[in-house]
UniProtKB/TrEMBL annotation:
The lineage of its organism: Eukaryota, Viridiplantae, Streptophyta, Embryophyta, Tracheophyta. This is ALA-interacting subunit. Coiled coil: none annotated. It comes from the Eukaryota. It is found in: Membrane. PANTHER family: ALA-INTERACTING SUBUNIT 2-RELATED, CELL CYCLE CONTROL PROTEIN 50. Its main location: membrane. Belongs to the CDC50/LEM3 family.
Amino acid sequence: METDGGGATSSLVGDGEGSSSGQVRWRSNAMYQFTQQNLPACKPVLTPLSVITTFFLLGIVFIPVGFISLHASQTVVEIVDRYDNECIPNKFRRNKEAYITDETISKNCTRHLKVPKYMKAPIYVYYQLDNYYQNHRRYVKSRSDRQLLDGLSYNHTSSCQPEEFNHGHPVVPCGLIAWSLFNDTYSFSSGRHELRVDRKNIAWKSDREHKFGKHVYPINFQNGTLIGGAKLDPSIPLSDQEDLIVWMRTAALPSFRKLYGRIEQDLDANDVINVSLLNNYNTYSFGGSKKIVLSTSSWLGGRNDFLGMAYLSIGSSFILISIVFMLLHLKNPRPYGDTNYTSWTWKGISS
């Protein structure tokens, strides 16, 4: 019994040692093949026929995709109205900055928008700013993501200068981005009926839940001598201040749109929408412009003809290239594997 047990034990040990050494040899062999580039790989040969066929098939695929994308974009109904010039009294036409900085002058304005086609809910309301460089390096740096999440428990906010402190007390949220928060407001009506604008869930869910603190409240915000934009309700946490969350996601281009809300009601063609707005935001000092946008959406998103046009142009180019290559190949065919075309047979090199 003992001999059998010992033999079995030694056999198991031997098998274990053999398997482990085999794994080591397999790994070392695989590493050698990898470092010496001896691994099997696909090496396609680009013959004239394969190149022409590839370009032609890509063109055949891209062109229908372009037509589908362009059609989806064209189905989006969009109303764009620039109001920054129209909402200035006549006597301030030549001095717009004096108008926008004078708090004693009423900033109320009414615009009338006609619906060109039937607009199915939800209808997205955007404000559009042009010539506004939110991607400026100094502007983008002027914020503290840790403070937005942790509040006053995080006090390393030197990046927020010059909007870090106000009268010696910390500002929450700090920085130029929050300080310049957009503060024009809109209300809508059609005939005698008010169009309710849903302003909830306009920001990214990830931003609301992970980037802005649920127990962080505005402190000492917009209390200085120079007011940049909108004020924040100090009784509402930053995670629920969705206008701020939308604004803090800075745009990459000087012309951009940001979501203001949604109208959860269908609009018929030729309806007239009355927009009552407060023209508060100062875009006149830097030559910017303000627009209000009402837009539906498709499966592809908002209206954007660029994607469809890009697919059409690239697909057409591919088909044109395939035709040119085919004509060249028919005119001057090159036999596959012809050594006369190799570099070492050229007379200029051999001599």
